[in-house]
Amino acid sequence: MEEDLKIDRSKWHKPWNLGHYDENATHYEGLRSRCLKCGVSFVFSAQEQKQAFEVEHRYPRYLPTLCSACSGEWETLEKQILEYEHSWEANRRDLACDREFLDMWLALLKKGQSYRKKRFESRIRMLVKTIGGLS
Ligand SMILES: [Zn+2]
User: Fold this and answer.
1) 114: closest CA among 2, 39, 23, 11?
2) Distance 36 CA to ligand 1 centre (A)
3) Which of these, 30, 48, 100, 110, has the minimum number of CB atoms within 10 Å of its CB?
4) pTM for the whole thing?
């Protein structure tokens, strides 16, 4: 292997936690995971692990729950949801009567649920109630 994918536990967030490897392991190896959104089986590569554990200091037992395609979709969706959240914080009174805004936000949150990264139950309840009050 050309790239140096040696495990350097000194850079880990919790070096004493063995994570996915036993104490004799010297190099990262691809780990298989299954996407919670689309069900596809994918590999958390040695390179990605080195980045996750030694640069981003992820928890040693971290395993991605989304494939790269779904992960990209989730990032876009999460940004959109945040924009709605910010608009709501800034102008709650007017937006509470804006059916189109509320419907769009609710649709995004429902879509977001299927990625199983965050739970939006209380927000969804609030929106359903607010929309119900309009009609
Ligand atoms: Zn997926």
Assistant:
1) 39
2) 7
3) 100
4) 0.81
- Name the residue among 134, 125, 131, 77 with its Cα closest to residue 102: 131
| Token output for 128 | 């359903």
The encoded tokens of residue 122 equal 């209380």
Sequential pLDDT tens for the chain (135 residues): 546 799 999 999 988 899 999 999 999 999 999 999 999 999 999 999 999 999 999 999 999 999 999 999 999 999 999 999 999 999 999 999 999 999 999 999 999 999 999 999 999 999 999 999 997
For residue 68, the CA-to-ligand 1 centroid distance in Å is 7
The C-alpha atoms of residue 102 and residue 37 are separated, in whole angstroms, by 25
Among the listed residues 109, 116, 29, 121, the one whose alpha carbon sits nearest the alpha carbon of residue 66: 116
Query: Tokens for 36?
Result: 């919670």
Measured between alpha carbons, how far is 62 from 58 in angstroms, rounded to an integer? Answer: 6
Ligand 1 centroid, distance to 35 Cα (angstroms): 5
43 Cα–ligand 1 center, Å: 12
90 Cα–ligand 1 center, Å: 34
